[in-house]
Amino acid sequence: xxxxxxxxxxxxxxxxxxxxxxxxxSLAAVLWVWCAVLLTMPYQADRKPDDKYPDxxxxxxxxxxxxxxxxxxxxxxxxxxxxxxxxxxxLGASVPISVTGGTLFAVGTVSRRIxxxxxxxxxxxxxxxxxxx
Length: 133
What we know:
This protein is mostly helical. It is built from three helices and two strands; from the N terminus they run αββαα. It is rod-shaped, with a radius of gyration of 27 Å.
């Protein structure tokens, strides 16, 4: 395989690696948005299945009263409806995905830049050799 063909193949592989990094970072962003929704949006809790008048619950993050955190002690159903483990599981799942995505994106970008730099240096060397001859 000639040098130019090898370079182009290397750049294609680097672009694919970078694309996978972008996909994983996008997935991590979706998980972060989902976590933010779970923390910041108010929600409703059913007292029983198919409840026509569910309890309105404050968001986990912006609650002034204890409906979201201490409501279970007072017979409130809000604390049972949206548990912290779900939020932490979403947040925990986003960490390895974002680290992997960031790493793939960085490796793909750096590989492509190094390949481009190497090609530019070879072309400059060819021009310098022609000017000497």
